[in-house]
Amino acid sequence: MKFEVKHIRLNNDKKWPHNEWLVTVNGESFQCRTGLGIKEKPTQNMVLESLFLDASCGQESFNDFCDNLGYSNDSIKAFDNYRQCMENAKKLRKALGNEYNTIKESIENQS
Questions:
Q1: What is the pLDDT of residues 44-88, one digit of tens each?
Q2: What count of Cα atoms within 13 Å lies in the side-chain half-sphere of residue 47?
Q3: Where are the domains of the chain?
Q4: pTM, two decimal places
Q5: How many CB atoms are located within 10 Å of the residue 68 CB?
Q6: How far apart are CA 32 and CA 81, in angstroms?
Q7: Which of 73, 95, 104, 107 is the 20 to 30 Å CA partner of 51?
Q8: How far apart are CA 33 and CA 21, in angstroms?
């Protein structure tokens, strides 16, 4: 698997200061954000675990997504987050191809 991480910037957002990263998995790019308490760049396992969680959220209905994560189903921001999870799921499946389930199981067993 080809995995690359590039630091984009430090975002000093007043609500949540964080680092922004561009992660590429087999040619598919994903945004990744880490809080300032995480000092190292994201590892392959950290990123894949997060992407698999996104993918599982993207497979739910929007109402279930909101119920499970405490969002209002009348929120535009919640819907944007839901769409991003669906997009990440699609890109992750494309990046991992036939190895998707095998890699997912491996990551789940490490957690």
A1: 999 999 999 999 998 899 999 999 999 999 999 999 999 999 999
A2: 24
A3: 3-110
A4: 0.87
A5: 11
A6: 14
A7: 73
A8: 6
